[in-house]
Amino acid sequence: MAITDVPAFAHLTDADIENLAFELDAIRQDVEDSLGERDARYIRRTIAAQRGLDVAGRLLLAASAKRSTWWAGTLTLALAKIVENMEIGHNVMHGQWNWMNDPEIHSTSWEWDMSAASKHWVSAHNYQHHKYTNILDMDDDVGYFILRVTRDQPWQRYNIGNLPYNLVLALAFEWAIGLQTVDLEKYFDDGPEGDIARRRTREFTTKAARQIVKDYVAFPALTSLSPAATYKSTLTANALANVIRSFWAHAVIVCGHFPDGAEKFTNTDMAGETKGEWYLRQMLGSANFDAGPVLRFLSGNLCHQIEHHLFPDLPSNRLHQVSLRVRAVCDKYDLPYTTASFAMQYGRTWRTIAKLSLPNRYLRDTADDAPETRSERMFTELGPGFAATDPVTGRHRGLKTAIAAVRHWRRANRRRCGSRQQTAPSLSNAQI
């Protein structure tokens, strides 16, 4: 049930973890030392292109007498919102471009085109999620309060609705993110926490109201002045563009945190966590998906979720380059580098959510060795001496080899059990 001892699960010694931290620190330093005008030009051009897409989408909607023009405007607007949300807003607010000292492209000043107030998101996401990644009861992104995504979450009757809940979450992801940072459950509490919840609720309501007026009142009214458009057509287009943006953002995020191999942790191993152990937990708790240049850009480079969690404030345009070196580090220490195609990761996420809508008694795998829930106890049968240097290859035997060994051992056991079941009836028939 979740990982309680990260070094033991990873099959690494204290010296290994210290060396791992040293090598990852070196990667960070190399990138920081090489940042310059080319990177600054990238983000400025991205912002300019996004604003151009936004204007183009709204002009198309103003001239949308034909259905094809309306769809072109809607999809262009949705694309503009996706780029602003994923490649610009998310990354700027992580402080990835603070090194430029540009007051307009800075984590403390950027306000994204979302219902969530930026300062709330920065506080909740940058600190809570990235510091306590996938730690149960500390990282609110584990299930977003409503989904059961690991067997460590006790099954409740409402979990039977896991699939429809996830669909609603995807369609309204913008609003889920906004409400997640408000802590409405503390609204009526006395004391400082209640005061904070009430203040954040007021600030969220103000920001959300501005978004509603912009998308569903002001722009539809402005567009309706055109003889080729109506208030309703633009209102519908804006609503659909927001839903498309929410669905895409949800898909990218769940592919980075819920597929097979994105591990969950308990808070028992947090005391005295070293930098190397934090790095290790980020590597084990995140997952990538394979992407070319276009998909990388549209995902805000969060197809490299592992690298983003290791270096959340490094510019997104550098993560592909960083991923080559991180993958080499994983190979050196025999750690799995969790990645697959986007379709595969997304499909595995929905499969896990569907499977965990059922109580554990209906699930086949153990709570310590399931695709979505593993712990160091899955390696009990390997014995204490497994994590050593392979006498044949001379390579360190670590987590990747250990997982393969357990899978091989269990497949062999299943084959033996199957052979016994097939043999028993044949003996009985012969006796008859």
From TrEMBL:
It comes from Mycobacterium conspicuum. Pfam families: FA_desaturase. The gene is desA3_2. InterPro entries: FA_desaturase_dom, Fatty_acid_desaturase. CDD domains: Delta6-FADS-like. The lineage of its organism: Bacteria, Bacillati, Actinomycetota, Actinomycetes, Mycobacteriales. One of its GO terms (biological process) is lipid biosynthetic process. One of its GO terms (cellular component) is membrane. GO terms for molecular function: oxidoreductase activity, acting on paired donors, with oxidation of a pair of donors resulting in the reduction of molecular oxygen to two molecules of water. This is NADPH-dependent stearoyl-CoA 9-desaturase.
